[in-house]
Design a protein that fits this description.
Blueprint lengths: L16 H20 L5 H4 L11 E7 L12 E8 L4 E8 L4 E9 L4 E8 L2 E11 L2 E9 L5 E12 L2 E9 L7 E10 L2
Antiparallel strand pairs: 1-2, 1-10, 2-3, 3-4, 4-5, 5-6, 6-7, 7-8, 8-9, 9-10
């Protein structure tokens, strides 16, 4: 069977970055076996593996609500590029006021869904599962707050134009009854 998916635990519970890396290594073994079976790079031709290509690039990120931001309003810079024969989109976030994070994004053929595994230098990994529809990828996950209470998470990427993407994070502490925006960024591609 076609496998472009790391062998990771499938729950939404956050897990450390080493588990992700181990999963990617296992995927490499699986993809190596496929190459020997005559399927050298299945993700290059699998349409689902390209649904998130609208996010590939080098991006300046500013608040979504500000139509003409000043340099002082810049939130950060994000570099998104495909790795592992387009199996994974690698994200490298640098916040303007300090801090950085990384994510790996891939289409999980076992689930038939997108996955994002995020880790910031402040800790607190996020393990999202999502779907693509009409130029939008919608991820969901959950974390625990400082008191150990469950917090629902939504992460949505909107393909606005070839050089513009909107990234919206939302959180709910009441089981999804109400949602608060925690990050709303306008991505403008560098040329």
């Amino acid at each position: 069977p076609d496998r472009c998916t790391p062998a990771l635990t499938r729950s939404l519970a956050p897990r450390p970055l080493p588990a992700l890396l181990a999963g990617l290594v296992l995927c490499g073994v699986s993809m190596h076996a496929q190459a020997q079976a005559g399927v050298p790079h299945p993700c290059l031709t699998m349409p689902e593996a390209h649904q998130f290509d609208f996010w590939i690039g080098e991006w300046d990120v500013t608040p979504w609500q500000v139509k003409s931001p000043t340099p002082a309003q810049r939130m950060g810079f994000n570099d998104i590029h495909p790795i592992l024969e387009h199996f994974v989109l690698s994200e490298n976030w640098m916040a303007t006021r300090g801090g950085e994070g990384k994510s790996y994004n891939y289409f999980d053929t076992n689930l038939g869904k997108w996955r994002q595994i995020w880790m910031a230098d402040s800790g607190g990994p996020l393990d999202y599962t999502g779907e693509f529809s009409d130029g939008v990828i919608r991820f969901t996950a959950w974390t625990l707050d400082a008191k150990g209470n469950r917090v629902e998470q939504k992460l949505t990427f909107f393909a606005i134009a070839p050089d513009t993407v909107r990234q919206l994070f939302e959180a709910s502490s009441d089981g999804g009854k109400t949602w608060a925006s925690t990050f709303d960024g306008r991505y403008v591609k560098r040329h």
